[in-house]
Amino acid sequence: MDTEKPHPAESEIPGSTRAAVITPPGAGAIAVVRVWGPGSLAMVDRLFRPASGIGLARMRPGRPRVGRLGACGVGDQVVVEILDDQGILEIQCHGGRAAPLAVMHTLIQAGAARAEPGLVAATTAQSVIATQALEDLPLAATLKTAAILLDQADGALDREIAAIARLVVADREALVGRLKTLIQRSGIGLRLARGWTVALAGRPNVGKSRLMNAIIGRERALVDHRPGTTRDVVTCELALEGWPIELVDTAGEREAIDSIERQGIERARAARAHADLVLLVLDGSMPLEPSDFHLLSQPHQARIVVANKSDLPPAWSLDQVGVELAISAERGQGLGELARLIAERIVGDPPPAFAAVPFRGSHVQCIVDALDRVESGNPAEALARLARGG
Q1: Domain positions in the chain
Q2: d(CA 221, CA 208)
Q3: What torsion, rounded to 10 degrees, do the Cα atoms 146, 150, 153, 154 define?
Q4: Contact in structure between 334 and 328 (CB atoms under 8 Å)
Q5: Are 353 and 322 in contact (CB under 8 A)?
Q6: In CATH, which of 3.30.70.260, 3.40.30.10, 2.160.10.10, 3.30.1360.120 is domain 1-125?
Q7: φ and ψ at 85, to 5 degrees?
């Protein structure tokens, strides 16, 4: 339970509160405004209307609060967090240009001073890893991936490296376990800025294009009853369960009738080969064909097999070829479960809030080196290199 806790440095000194946008400019999913100095907490508390619960002035540090920021509590939705007992706060808002400018305008109108670049650097005191996280933040396409990068900017990975370094001599078993956990989480960390690719595959007329349109909620791909309508790779970026996805619709797999369709099929095969996940679509209302079995026989590291047109009478048993889900792109049946299944398959076990997550290849290489050197070398050297940013 949150209890009232006094915060120091809350005297109302005109102009003593400073504010600055600390995330780089760009089209990222989220922007961060940092506020500090005498009177900072009192000022933000006056402007912030929490969605529920007690006000900021009674909150302990490290507890993010959702609400609206603006005069009389009216304004854009933001997340506010008190970082420490000195009254340093971070306001997380939508990315781009307009939202952080609106937050800064509100703070300046309330009496805050726009910070000079030197003051921001002195106040934020970022490590190399934290600075790298802020550099990557504008590339995060969703709030969920941006939140993970913000945790690293706030020192999550730095703190874990320091904790692991203390285990180098004390507890070898715990050291190995925590290094392996970081390596496992890097599978997500390395995708925070670029997301995952999911390719739709199947023979012509199984409903791939209609399924793509149903998932994204608009007409992105052409749909026609005649086979071979999709001749090229069609892509769309979206978020599923909060994770950034590039969905790729490809030409149907069959014996090509002309050179253009042949090129489309070759591009479809290349797209499937490079995808993180293949969504193989079968027509549950029609007998299976040789091209279906050909696609089912193709190896891929990750695949989900779905039977489309579940709104029609089935022509074969779904467990015959290992179908995981029956859907209807026409009626929208099963699409929510499909979205959850895709996210589960590509992400696996997501890190908990505030967890340490390596997010650059250099970080992962240092962690792998440290794990290798546990047996025969000096893991502390690799960890020291990681602490310097890899």
Answers
A1: 1-125, 127-192+357-390, 196-347
A2: 9
A3: -170
A4: yes
A5: no
A6: 3.30.1360.120
A7: -75, -5
Alpha-carbon distance of 133 to 126, in angstroms, equals: 10
Nearest-5° angle of CA 183, CA 32, CA 361?
A: 25
> 293 to each of 195, 203, 290, how far by Cα in Å?
30, 10, 5
Mean pLDDT (10-residue bins), the chain, 390 residues:
38 64 72 88 91 83 86 76 84 85 92 70 66 84 88 91 85 89 96 92 89 77 44 77 90 54 64 87 94 86 92 91 93 94 93 94 93 82 78
The structural architecture, per CATH, of the domain 196-347 is 3-Layer(aba) Sandwich (3.40)
**Spatial separation of the C-alpha atoms in residues 316 and 333, rounded to whole Å:** 19
Nearest to 279 by CA among 239, 306, 240, 307: 306
Alpha-carbon span 17 to 230, nearest angstrom:
58
| Per-residue pLDDT at 228 | 46
DSSP-assigned states of every residue in 274-322? H-SEEEEEEETTS---HHHHHHHHS--SSEEEEEE-TTS--SS-GGGTT
What sign results for the dihedral spanned by CA atoms 91, 96, 102, 105? positive
Residue 85 structure tokens: 């007992």
Tokens of 312: 């029609």
Tokens 């369709």 found at? 261
Tell me the backbone φ, ψ of residue 94, rounded to 5 degrees.
Answer: -65, 150
What single DSSP character describes residue 111? T
- CA dist 114 and 105 (Å) reads 10
- The token pair at 156 is 């999550």
Per-residue model confidence (pLDDT) at position 136: 86
pLDDT value, residue 341: 96
